[in-house]
């Protein structure tokens, strides 16, 4: 039925088919590995995205606290300058009073006068 040449060709085709089956199995294994790797990468990206979101929230909270601290420090600085201004005004007023007080006291006192009674 089959000639010797046909049997050889059939044997060659069977060997090639087996080789192609092995290649296809390797490609299937590679595709499965790539699929698993893709899923793992997707999970890792989701975890990293969550971490980035949490870190952004933490950074936002830290910035808000720093701004609050800056506001308090500005208030304290403003208060310090106000106290310094009040002390300066008080010092000037005390200086003016000290310089005017002796003249006011001496002008209020009248020198003793001697009068003769007739």
Percentage of residues in DSSP E strands: under 5%
CA-atom Rg in angstroms: 51 Å
Total helical elements: 1
How many distinct beta strands? 0
Largest sheet: none
Structural summary, described in words:
With 118 residues, this protein is mainly alpha-helical. The chain is 89% helix and 0% strand. It is built from one helix and no strands. The longest helix has 105 residues, at 4-108. It is rod-shaped and about 180 Å long. It starts with a helix and ends in a 10-residue tail after the last helix.
Describe this structure in a few short sentences.
With 118 residues, this protein is mainly α. The protein has one helix and no strands.
Describe this protein with a few key phrases.
single chain, 118 residues, mainly alpha, rod-shaped
